[in-house]
Specification:
The protein has about 900 residues and is of the alpha+beta class. Helices cover about 40% and strands about 20% of the residues.
Length: about 900
């Protein structure tokens, strides 16, 4: 008997393994597609689980006994298919319990035609913001959703791919007087037994699963405000704010300002908002924001404000909410057909959101901040361990890696470069043509490129787009004087110091330069498609000063010959902000490539530190701070601190550092934001003891009264308190970061937990990350700040190694690979080995882990190479600068 049982067991095991080997690791097979969903979800966030009924109308192309779909951590009680008047029982099988690939195996073959797939199931709420997750605020429990990229399958069985766009009918059964919101207006509510209610929502427009959304709990919901009709929308658009209980008093700013963003987007796209209403939903633990159709869910600090939001709060609201609103057209109305084109979805929204928010409030410097983020992405893109923007996706485990700064920031930079080359009007026509061709459908990036080439009348931009999105890397264009007064251009791949040879890639670069002469500046452009080329200069440009990146819009680095750089640099403080910022970044990149000395870098920093634009003025200060934290040792580290105070201290003193609330409310927003950043650079990076002491002196008396200190400077004050007063003060910060009803205060306290002077304090701060009731994004800020500082890094690193499993459990699965960046501040072969053998080896097993680990290892190698090449020169150059 035992032998027979063994034979049967191994036979079944072999059959199961053979079946598993054949399952779809990427796209689901063709032949069965959803045409309509009907979902009924019973959601009580006080319980650990929820339940659901799902009916999915299918179009079946050919007879089949197996229906492949998605479901993750679902406990299916019953499944069947109705077809041709028959009810065919089925068996649900979770085939891949990591990625959520599942199937329904039918007792009889399903014929071609229409069919109805029915499920009854239950599932656990998630504790982190993925799938259908729950969180507690005080004594109240709430449920929210985060389905992008592939977490709708945690909430209901379905075809969890962007190409499957169908209408949804959603009903939510609530308990205990809870309220609920979804993608569409509530159609009716029916009272059930024991205080439960069934809420039916209007049928949606066709949506992919990842854009379905809901929120449930004792919610505060504002009365609907009708955004007035306009030239492209004939009727008012209902707008509501939604948040946890007691937050209704913080709705005012978002309700007042969101209509202006929507109106500008409607004007740009030339079409009405695509959905019947828009809810802005504030979740206390959402990571960033999510563009669900008609129901944007965002971290509550992006939507909930006091009566006088700070300039930083206003900027964050504008840039993030404009991004998510732009998605309502670009991503929701027209959706990528597959995850390999999600880059266009996110890149366009990043670029468009920044553009619209900057038009809305040009005084906030949003355009320069977005450019700064794109320049930061160039540092990632310069690595050999990289990926193209348009990355082929043939495995579910690759999807998470597409949500990084290459997608968002490189993609936005490439889009901005093409717009700069074509001009705003021609580019806008291409966008409108693309949207008009695919309303409520799907499209590929190639179809977007084609629309852009057709509408602009310049089909060559198609190849320009492709050359930047289909290969990794950053081009660098060397610019010298050529024959006949033209500029001679030569492109190659930019490479920082470090192991590995430079690549031989070529790009079709939309190259535009500004020429400053005696008359108005000239913008001159060409498409540089070969290794070498020229840019002809008209007579009016003769003798002018050349900036090789007009408007800072080029996704390339540039190298100017000595005399040309010498002519451009004195103009630095008067250059347009984006061009000055590009000049600063190129100087830093040249230093990291071994083409600019430390003394020359400091000369550029001295000139640009006086620029009126905040992002430009601080750019090289932050690069010096990075050298301090990662590369410099001993004397050089101290000299960098003194240099930062030298560069920025006087400007900060002129602005003032009065911590009284409202003291600077009459100052321009840019000046307020500059003061905030200067305090950080001078006090914490420059280690200015007098300034740190004055901040700490205010910390103890304001930690229990956060409103009694300037809101823009509050996080710096609390950070100084953590350094000065240690563990007892940290305990008060942790309470504040956990219990404050003000999302801005919670984040300020959480930021301050990233600063500690002793191992005891640092360990006490890091435990904040492990509490499942705390906001994971605040906890991650704490961890990464501790790893940034050389003084706290050894303690924080050891703590992470001891708690790596618990920390990973706090991450949504698709973002776990990001933890590899914890090793990004190392700069030696010994530290590289420790990272690689411990955390690196662990993260190779998670989504996007291989890519992120490879990037971190290369960053360590490059830092070590830069230290080898420049370490001996740092102290002499800094000493000479300080003595000048």
């Amino acid at each position: 008997m035992r032998a027979i049982r063994s034979i049967l067991w191994f036979g079944l095991l072999a059959a199961a393994q053979a079946f598993a080997a054949d399952y779809p690791h990427g796209r689901l097979p063709e032949g069965v597609a959803p045409t309509h969903y009907r979902l009924t979800l019973t959601v009580d966030p006080r319980r650990p689980t929820f339940s659901g009924r799902a009916e999915i109308e299918l179009a079946v192309a050919a007879p089949t006994s197996v229906v492949w779909l998605h479901g993750l951590d679902l406990k299916v009680q019953d499944v069947a298919v109705l077809s041709g008047g028959r009810r065919i029982p089925g068996r649900y099988e979770a085939v891949d319990k990591t990625t959520g690939v599942a199937c329904v195996r039918l007792a009889q073959p399903l014929k071609g035609g229409r069919a109805l797939l029915e499920f009854r199931y239950s599932a656990p709420f998630q504790d982190s913001p993925q799938g259908l997750y729950r969180t507690r605020v005080g004594k109240d429990w709430y449920a929210f959703t985060q389905f992008e990229a592939t977490d709708a399958r945690r909430a209901f069985p379905g075809f969890d791919e962007p190409r499957f766009k169908t209408p949804f009918d959603v009903a939510i059964v609530t308990a205990h007087g809870d309220r609920a919101v979804g993608n569409t207006p509530e159609r009716r509510a029916v009272k059930l037994v024991k205080g439960a209610e069934r809420r039916d929502f209007a049928t949606t427009k066709p949506l992919p699963t990842y854009l379905v959304a809901l929120a449930v709990g004792p919610l505060d919901i504002s009365p609907a405000t009708g955004i007035p009709a306009n030239a492209v929308r004939a009727t008012p658009l209902p707008l509501r704010l939604v948040a946890t209980r007691g937050q209704g008093g913080r709705f005012g700013y978002a309700l007042k300002e969101a209509p202006a963003l929507i109106a500008r987007l409607e004007q740009y796209f030339g079409s009405a908002f695509p959905y019947p209403k828009i809810d802005l939903i504030a979740s206390p633990v959402q990571l960033g924001a999510m563009e669900n159709a008609g129901a944007i869910i965002a971290s509550d600090d992006l939507l909930l404000f006091g009566p006088a939001p700070s300039a930083r709060e206003q900027s964050n609201f504008g840039s993030v909410i404009a991004h998510e609103l732009a998605h309502q057209w670009f991503g929701d109305l027209v959706t990528p057909a597959w995850w390999d084109d999600i880059w266009l979805n996110e890149a366009f929204a990043e670029w468009m959101g920044s553009k619209i928010a900057d038009q809305w409030r040009p005084d906030l410097g949003i355009s320069q901040e977005q450019l700064g983020a794109t320049l930061g992405a160039m540092k990632t893109d310069a690595l050999r361990a990289g990926r193209p923007v348009h990355q082929p996706i043939d495995n579910n485990l690759q999807i998470g890696s597409t949500f990084d700064d290459i997608t968002y920031q490189k993609g936005a930079g490439v889009i901005g470069m093409v717009e700069s080359y074509l001009g705003e009007q021609r580019f806008q026509k291409g966008v409108q043509l693309h949207l008009s061709r695919h309303p409520y459908g799907t499209a590929t990036a190639n179809e977007f490129f084609a629309a852009m080439g057709e509408a602009s009348g310049e089909p060559a931009v198609v190849e320009a787009f492709r050359s930047f999105v289909d290969q990794p890397g950053v081009p660098i264009v060397s610019v010298t004087a050529g024959a006949g007064g033209a500029l001679a251009l030569e492109q190659s791949r930019y490479k920082p110091l470090g192991p590995g040879a430079a690549g031989t890639e070529l790009w079709k670069i939309p190259f535009c330069a500004s020429v400053y002469g005696r008359e108005a500046p000239l913008k001159l452009c060409t498409l540089l498609g070969e290794k070498q080329g020229t840019l002809a200069l008209p007579p009016a440009a003769a003798g002018g000063v050349v900036h090789p990146d007009a408007g800072g819009a080029g996704y390339y680095r540039f190298a100017l010959g000595g005399p040309a750089l010498a002519a451009l640099l004195p103009m630095g403080p008067k250059l347009p902000a984006r061009e000055a910022l590009a000049l600063a970044d190129n100087a830093g990149a040249a230093f990291e490539a071994g083409r600019l000395s430390m003394a020359e870098l400091l000369d550029v920093a001295r000139v640009l530190a006086t620029h009126p634009d905040r992002t430009t003025a601080l750019s090289l200060g932050y690069r010096l701070a990075d050298l301090h934290d990662r590369l410099a040792d001993g004397e050089a580290r101290t000299l960098i601190e003194r240099t930062l105070v030298r560069l920025y201290g006087e400007r900060l003193r002129a602005l003032g550092t009065d911590l009284t609330p409202g003291r600077y409310k009459a100052d321009p927003a840019e000046q307020q934001l500059l003061r905030r950043e200067l305090v950080g650079l001078v006090a914490f990076d420059g280690h200015d003891r007098a300034l740190l002491g004055s901040l700490a002196a205010v910390a103890e008396r304001t930690v229990d009264q956060p409103e009694s200190v300037d809101a823009l400077l509050r996080r710096r004050v609390y950070a100084a308190g953590a350094l000065e007063f240690g563990t007892p003060f940290v305990a008060r910060l942790k309470t504040l970061a956990t219990t404050s009803h003000d999302a801005q205060v919670r984040r300020d306290a959480g930021f301050a937990l990233g600063f500690g002077a002793t191992p005891e304090t640092i360990n006490a701060e890091l435990t904040f990350l492990l509490d499942a009731h705390n906001d994971v994004s605040i906890g991650l800020t704490t961890l990464f700040l501790q790893l940034t500082h050389p003084e706290s890094r050894p303690t924080a690193w050891q703590w992470l190694l001891e708690h790596e499993d618990a920390v990973l459990a706090r991450f949504p699965a698709m973002f776990q690979g990001v933890l590899a960046s914890a090793g990004g501040w190392f700069c030696s072969a010994e530290e590289r080995s420790v990272f690689d053998s411990r955390l690196g080896a662990r993260l190779l097993k998670v989504d996007s882990g291989e890519l992120e680990v490879g990037r971190t290892l290369e960053r360590i190698d490059n830092c070590a190479a830069l230290r080898e090449a420049t370490g001996a020169s740092l102290a002499p150059a800094l000493s000479a600068f300080l003595g000048s």
